[in-house]
Here is the input.
Amino acid sequence: AQKITQTQPGMFVQEKEAVTLDCTYDTSDQSYGLFWYKQPSSGEMIFLIYQGSYDEQNATEGRYSLNFQKARKSANLVISASQLGDSAMYFCAMREVWGGSNYKLTFGKGTLLTVNP
Amino acid sequence: NAGVTQTPKFRILKIGQSMTLQCAQDMNHNYMYWYRQDPGMGLKLIYYSVGAGITDKGEVPNGYNVSRSTTEDFPLRLELAAPSQTSVYFCASNWGGSYNEQFFGPGTRLTVL
Here is the structure.
């Protein structure tokens, strides 16, 4: 079963509007972390935002915010005031225990966001 | 700081050839990782290392080997390349622990024909 599900293969948004990218996760751990990464067409992976499972407030980083709904196991990324440079692939990832006491990231399949002028 | 660097950027291999993908970081991170990204998919963990001399398998280790003789370097070795290893390979690093994001290199695009 997929541990990270991103149901939107592609999304379109008008410049200056807000957009929400969906992410649901599956874990039985009490302690976990959720990350969002941006991958522009140039290919590099850029860290955007992090939410810990015990964090009571939703994470925010500039125009990025994470809408964390723990009971629903969702961690949606909200981008406010979209810019043309936001056009990219966006990956949701979950930190989970691996190899006993270490951690790894499990990634979703990504959502391709296109910002229209 | 250069961050995480990877060489080469692109490579084409013939079936059965071998090669080493290089990865280096100058942030003194303990943890380093190798991922592969297949078309239309997220990243999958191949191998990771928690410090010099210590490596362990990830989700998809078959066909690869790693070594970590220094804190800075974490090369990935492909022996007997196969078409199924055509992918984009990312190296990443962080301090370890449970909260730090991973810093990624620019990736190596490998094609096996």
Summary: Chain A has a mean pLDDT of 93.
